[in-house]
Design a protein that fits this description.
With 772 residues, the protein is α/β, with parallel strands linked by helices. The protein contains 20 helices and 37 strands. GO terms for molecular function: serine-type endopeptidase activity.
Length: 772
């Protein structure tokens, strides 16, 4: 009896202890990425996974670490869900180089191949066989494979170097892949660790735990880069014609690292890079960036770290510059081994016209494709006059139905998606919308597939129309939609939203590198989302028209595929150099490129080296090449120590005792930085050019072009002539920049090397910074 009572007591005590333990606050856990020195692995472990899961990485043997992702190609290490104590313990582990938190990144949300200078059976398309032997890896939201843009008709067999596979899952079978879509994978472990497994698996009506694209962004970027030819393509009648990617025969491998409505986790992005390189891609396209407006140091940036590993294995990586323009220093993806792409317009637009009751007309843009407004004039109202800021922005539940019913409503741009404002107007009873830019957006316009008759207008026109509404006793208006207009001039112009320099991490490196078509781009779309992306938009469309540096990036990825196919021996740096030094700095009226936001002449801080011009990139004459040793020297020059650099390079490095100039990185652009407190006004930077022209014997002469108003700037080049031979394909030179004194804004010019046939153009930007 006593024994039975004791057992009952112990059982109750154990239950009470477990209850109290479970009721105590548990250490908060989150996902961390752990960078490990692979050379430290003891031979007793058969794999890195077994090493990471062993007691060697756990301070508590009863709670071993369970890796989520294991990285072993572009990055050595793992990700895992840890509490702060475990993370701190790992930081003290001698085999660990770095431990940092997993963060959320965001997507940087036809006719463009012809606008880039590509022609059927001529030039780069013909000489590269349209990129048929190249695989482009797309790190994005997945793919919707049942699209003509993924047809493999008339494609040759998949390249023998391809090692990837077609992962299956809900809504995605192995038969979804073919000779065009050669591989598809998805990466959800980081996402699940942050949001819970049910965030995807329990919401199958919104997402797919497979490579299938529930968002549309990934399908659009993949087919922009390498979509197959699709005749009779259009979006609701707009942009009708033949749709094709920049490299229409290139193969596509989709790596789903981003999830609808919840962004992209660093740990999943790194896993995507790791697997893409292991699978054998030749080009990687990443239209993803930081969402907080602050650039991370290179060693804490998964795109920078992952792309370094890819670059060192000969894989070209293109990234989007971001959509926070026209603010200065808004550019993201800043590492020198990345090609960072801003956005420009093309010579096609979708005009709409606002007609006021007093007869005045104002030009805007729209992709509205529903029933047009009636011919008669309608009342127009600006709710921001009486309803405050939320009403002026047409935020959810901000509009009074009594005030807007049956009327055209003016909404200010900002704070919520442009298309969502139209939904708010429609639900409140409004029959049309005028979407007015604010001062920060300037006059830059993009078309949207609105859910009601709507037109976007620039800031100046918006102010004029608002003034009319406020001053008129009975303001009236209507909107007329005019379809598709081709042959627009000037084009390109720098898109107002395109992120701008200077480089916030390393001002000695000019970013963005160049711009490419990123406004009103037609490409394939998903059936899982309407063209606006709004949950209430049930429309289905094979193609959609989007704008953003997300759309510009795959143009450069496709271009890289063509150049890699035509020049298989070129390094990623050589391919980037060919694009940059042949980029256009003039528009289709042969005038200087203009900034859409201001209407003023743009500068290299807006467009980098210029606008992608593939008619010239095939044969650039000279290139500025780079390798791992050059990037290591740059990282040493900006003050990184050997241990931090190894986090990026995954191999031990040694920095020279005498620090080099960061400006000496052999880049196709030149950015010279002076200290405002230092008396020096002169600096000499070095470059080495490699002759890749068809003629091994070539003589190039230097010419310096300074922008107007740059009288205080002097640029000298020594030697002024470069002579190349079969035995001397590389020649070095020095550029000495002398400035009269600090200015409030950077000054710029160009260095042009010419042999009478080629013009190898490099922007020169000179700026002054305050020491930290």
């Amino acid at each position: 009896m006593a024994s039975s009572s004791l057992s009952l007591f112990l059982s109750l005590l154990l239950t009470l202890t477990l209850t109290l333990t479970n009721s105590l606050p548990q250490p908060e856990r989150q996902t961390y990425i752990v960078r490990v020195n692979p050379r430290a692995k003891p031979t007793i472990f058969t794999s890195h996974y077994h090493w990471y899961a062993s007691s060697a990485f756990s301070s508590d043997s009863s709670q071993p670490i369970t890796p989520l992702h294991v990285y072993d190609t572009v990055f050595h290490g793992f990700s895992a869900s840890l509490d702060q104590t475990q993370a701190n313990s790992l930081r003290q582990n001698p085999s660990v180089l770095a431990v940092y938190e997993d963060r959320v990144r965001h997507l940087h949300t036809t006719r463009s191949p012809q606008f880039l200078g590509l022609r059927t059976q001529l030039g780069l398309w013909s000489l590269s066989d349209y990129g048929s032997d190249v695989v482009v890896g797309i790190l994005d939201t997945g793919v919707w494979p049942e699209r003509r843009s993924f047809s493999d008709r008339n494609l040759p067999p998949v390249p023998a170097t391809w090692r990837g596979q077609c992962e299956t899952g809900p809504g995605f079978s192995a038969s979804a892949c073919n000779k065009k879509l050669v591989g598809a994978r998805f990466f959800s472990k980081g996402h699940s660790a942050k949001y819970g497994k049910e965030a995807v698996a329990g919401n199958a009506s919104v997402e797919f735990l497979s490579p299938r694209d529930a968002d549309g962004h990934g399908t659009h970027t993949a087919t922009t880069a390498a979509g197959s030819i699709a005749f009779d393509a259009n979006f609701s009648g707009y942009a009708a014609g033949v749709a094709k990617g920049v490299a229409p025969k290139a193969r596509v491998a989709a790596y789903k690292v981003c999830w609808k409505n919840q962004g992209c986790l660093d740990s999943d992005i790194l896993a995507g890079f790791d697997k893409a390189v292991s699978d054998g891609v030749n080009v990687i396209s990443v239209s993803i960036g930081g969402g907080d407006g602050v650039a991370s140091p290179y060693y804490l940036d998964p795109i920078a770290v992952g792309s370094y590993g890819a670059n060192s294995r000969g894989v070209f990586v293109a990234t989007s510059a971001g959509n926070d323009g026209p603010s200065p220093m808004s550019v993201t993806n800043l590492a020198p081994w990345l090609t960072t792409v801003g956005a420009g317009t093309i010579d096609r637009s979708f005009p709409a016209e606002i007609v006021l009751g007093d007869g005045r007309k104002f030009s805007g843009v729209s992709l509205y494709a529903g029933k047009p407004l009636s011919d008669k004039m309608l009342s127009i109202v600006y709710p921001g006059r009486a309803g405050g800021l939320s009403a002026s922005l047409c935020m959810e539940n901000s509009l009074d139905p009594k005030a807007v019913a049956g009327k055209i409503v003016i909404c200010d741009r900002g704070s919520s998606p442009r298309v969502a404002k139209g939904l708010v107007v429609r639900d409140a009873g409004g029959v049309g919308m005028i979407l007015a830019n604010g001062a920060t957006n300037g006059e830059g316009l993009v078309g949207d597939a609105h859910v009601l008759p709507a037109c976007a207008i620039g800031a100046h026109e918006g102010d004029v129309i608002k003034s009319y509404v406020i001053s008129s006793a009975n303001p009236m208006a209507t909107i007329v939609f005019k379809g598709t207009l081709v042959g627009v001039k000037p084009a390109p112009v720098v898109a107002s939203f395109s992120a701008r320099g200077p480089n916030g991490l390393s001002p000695e490196l000019l970013k963005p590198d160049l711009i490419a078509p990123g406004v009103n781009i037609l490409a394939a779309w998903t059936d899982a989302a309407g063209p606006t992306g709004l949950e209430t938009d049930s429309r289905k469309t094979e193609f959609n028209i989007l704008s953003g540096t997300s759309m510009a990036c795959p143009h450069v990825s496709g271009a890289a595929a063509l150049l890699k196919s035509a020049h298989p021996d070129w390094s990623p740096a050589a391919i980037r150099s060919a694009m940059m030094t042949t980029a256009s700095v003039n528009d289709n009226q042969d005038e200087q490129l203009v900034d859409e936001a201001t209407g003023h002449v743009a500068t290299p801080l807006d467009f980098g080296a210029g606008h992608l011009n593939l008619a010239r990139a095939l044969d650039p004459g000279l290139v500025y090449d780079l390798g791992d040793a050059d990037y290591v020297s740059f990282l040493c020059a900006i003050g990184y120590d050997a241990r931090i650099i190894q986090v990026i390079t995954h191999v031990p490095v040694t920095c020279p005792r005498r620090k080099q100039l960061a400006e000496n990185l052999n880049y196709p652009s030149i950015s010279v930085v002076f200290s405002q407190t230092n008396g020096s006004r002169s600096k000499t930077v070095l470059r080495t050019a490699t002759n890749v022209g068809t003629k091994p014997e070539a003589i190039y002469n230097a010419k310096v072009e300074l922008a107007s108003g740059m009288n205080g700037l002097k640029v000298a080049v020594r030697p002024e002539t470069l002579s190349f031979t079969k035995a001397a394909r590389k020649q070095s030179f020095a550029v000495t920049v002398t400035a009269a004194g600090p200015t409030s804004t950077p000054v710029y010019g160009y260095l042009v090397w010419s042999d009478g046939e080629h013009e190898v153009r490099s922007p020169i930007v000179v700026s002054w910074v305050q020491p930290m």
